[in-house]
Design goal:
17 helices; mainly alpha
Length: 302
């Protein structure tokens, strides 16, 4: 019998720990350069970024409301948004507008008229995938609505859907190839399907960062990071967590988010006891995240 509690905790804590370990190596945004100085006031802690902060907000809303309430989730994200967590300027502005009373649908389009196709929706989607892991149809609908709060472009939504399906699959199978195939769907753009096809072939080879960067990408847009993170999670599916994070660092680019997404999939498969302690004991808000995972297990999905 599957121990859902340890799997849920593994996914959420795997996301947070990989995010925190990858943050100092962030290569795309200013906080990567500034991360160590920012952390001087808490040298004993591994501090997480916006990736984990939004995943926490997602879980807090689910638990508080007893299920998915997009209005509450949007407000929760807006209330938690903190620039020193490394939020991108577009996301910060969108969440600021929501915080001052602009309806979330309007706020998202004011900042990104065509919708954002960054990886911000994918990085925070793990709690929804855990909660609705046995309901694929409902999961897809919920992911689309939750993503649209800040990432209304189809590519941003599709990236989140891929990651959600992968996390859900990792709860149910020991086969990494099955996890890599799980996100496939007719609704996906060729930018994703082509990369998923390439990743299937690459999974049969030993991990190598050069083809990952050249063929899949390491950027902040969803189609240049989501499949990358998924392949890394599958490559290291039964290998140590520190090797997974080390490989994410070697890939460069949007390290913290790629690591966070890979960590969520890896942790859903391996469970919390497989995470290394230390450094898990130094993770900021470890107790809070573990508590939210426990409450999420008990949350009815029907």
């Amino acid at each position: 019998m599957v121990d859902w509690a340890r799997r849920f905790a593994g996914s959420l804590l795997g996301l947070a720990l990989a995010d925190a370990l990858g943050a100092p190596y962030e290569g795309w945004r200013m906080e990567g350069f500034a991360w160590k100085p920012i952390n001087l006031h808490r040298p004993d802690a591994l501090r997480y970024t916006d990736d984990t902060d939004m995943a926490i907000g997602c879980t807090v809303s689910l638990v508080r409301r007893g299920g998915f309430d997009v209005e509450d989730m949007a407000r929760t994200w807006a209330e938690r948004a903190d620039g020193v967590r490394g939020y991108g300027p577009g996301a910060l502005e969108c969440l600021r507008l929501i915080r001052v009373g602009v309806p979330w649908r309007e706020a998202a389009r004011q900042v990104y008229p065509s919708g954002s196709y960054g990886n911000g929706a994918a990085m925070r989607v793990a709690p929804l995938a855990l909660w609705l892991h046995n309901q694929p149809g409902r999961l897809a609908e919920t992911v689309e609505l939750a993503s649209s709060v800040t990432h209304a472009h189809p590519w941003g939504i599709q990236g989140a859907l891929i990651m959600a399906r992968a996390v859900a699959a990792a709860l149910h199978t020991d086969d990494p190839a099955a996890v890599l195939r799980a996100p496939q769907g007719d609704e996906l753009d060729a930018r994703f399907t082509d990369r998923l096809r390439l990743a299937e072939g690459m999974l049969k080879q030993e991990p190598d960062q050069q083809p990952v960067v050249e063929l899949l990408g390491n950027g902040v847009v969803a189609h240049e990071s989501v499949v990358t993170a998924l392949l890394i999670a599958c490559w290291f599916y039964d290998r140590p967590f520190d090797e997974l994070v080390g490989f994410c660092v070697s890939v460069g680019g949007d390290v913290d988010t790629i690591a966070a997404m890979a960590g969520a999939v890896w942790g859903a498969h391996r469970g919390v006891e497989a995470l290394p302690d230390p450094p898990l004991d130094r993770l900021e808000d470890r107790g809070l995240i573990a508590s939210l995972a426990e409450q999420l297990v008990e949350l009815p999905a029907d």
